[in-house]
Fold:
Amino acid sequence: MRILQIFGFFVILWHGQFAFRMKETEDIITGGCKKLENTTPLLRLKKYLFCDYDSTVRPNHHKVVTNITLRLMPKMMEFTEDGVLTLHSWMSFFWTDTFLTWTPSNYNGLTYIHVQPFYLWMPDIYVYNSGDMTSNDYQTIFNTECLVFNNGSVICVPPIKIVSKCDPDYTYWPYDQHTCLITLGSWSHIGEEMDVHLDGTGVDMNGYENNTQWDMKLLNAKKIVKKYKCCPNDTFPRIDYTFLLTRHYSIHYRAYIAPAIALIFLTLTVLWLDSRSVERVAMASINFICHLLCIFDLYWMVPFNGINSPHIMLFYRDSLILATFALILTALLRKLQNISMEMPNWISSTTTFILSNKAGRFLVLNDEKSKIADGGIVIEDNLNTPKSEMKKESWRHFATIIEWLSFFCVILTYVIILITLVLSGVTN
Ligand SMILES: *[C@@H]1O[C@H](CO)[C@@H](O)[C@H](O)[C@H]1NC(C)=O
Ligand SMILES: *[C@@H]1O[C@H](CO)[C@@H](O)[C@H](O)[C@H]1NC(C)=O
Ligand SMILES: *[C@@H]1O[C@H](CO)[C@@H](O)[C@H](O)[C@H]1NC(C)=O
Ligand SMILES: *[C@@H]1O[C@H](CO)[C@@H](O)[C@H](O)[C@H]1NC(C)=O
Structure:
């Protein structure tokens, strides 16, 4: 019994409080809206406009479309190597709110007022392909005021941060370009309720601060109206902004392309040197180490996108193979020239065949030997030398032939590699 009494008391108390609250709010609304004559025109106007305004109701008849005109004003951008474009920009939203019209002469000639977006109906424009919903939500839009004109035009220019995922392709690094798409549209309204339009070209790049690493260009901004099978009577308009990002490659050119060219010449120089010389061994080793260093450095530098290896990496890999080949060949040729074994027939016949050729003689028999290149003298000369020396001599000729052969083969290989890598980059 007792408990019920206490409970009932609380119920009465609660009801009493509630009724009191209701009365209080009613007073504020009606009282505030009634005594308008003594206040400023601006306050009068605000009371007039927002007394029975509902910010959740679209400001048109339900069969009339609300046109939203958009203009994107990029200020700066960031692009991370994993393909996330962050665009800091201003965005102007322009529409007509038929509930917000007044006659300026009634309000001391006020033709426009500032209004917190919180009080207004706002279009629910979102970035569709966003990687980050929190970054472009209405919190930022709510922080800036909008202008409302006496004819009902509303314009809001909030700063927004658009995060969008691009599909990066690093195949032609550091000459890479990426296309980034930003798609905007109403999140929940169909095109018959709310339509989006571009303001002129839709983008104003005037206030854009150039990025030090990327050059950003607008490829196009266009409105796309989609229809889906589900709803044949509804359209789904959206706006697609396509940006082209081009890397400023000069630093990478200096750090990675120039060394690549240097390494080509280094490898060729190794092959061109006499294989008996110590310089060739030293240079071949240095060349090999340089290749390794460059590849490791490049590996940390080049962004990875999982599908296509950057062509520069492929080039360094191929060049490393050639450098390894040059190093091993150098070792083999040095070994070969100390052999005192009898030459197999096929080798000696090949050597003789090449030496019988003028160009072959010119290449194989170097300076001091070229004088004695004429048949008779060579034989006479050879007669005077011991047999093991003669064998060594023919091995030496064989080695020289291989040296030249490898030199030209490597040049040819480099040309083929460069043509395939560069050409495929040009045609794409
Ligand atoms: C909206 O834009 C369309 C096409 O530009 C136009 O035909 C229509 O009258 C506009 N509606 C309003 C309410 O301004
Ligand atoms: C309303 O007035 C503003 C400012 O004068 C103007 O920019 C805007 O175009 C007008 N809107 C309409 C729908 O006439
Ligand atoms: C920004 O870059 C563009 C093209 O790369 C150039 O035309 C423009 O002058 C640059 N602007 C500034 C402020 O550096
Ligand atoms: C589309 O409009 C047509 C003609 O007004 C109507 O017959 C049809 O039922 C509508 N379809 C849907 C899915 O609303």
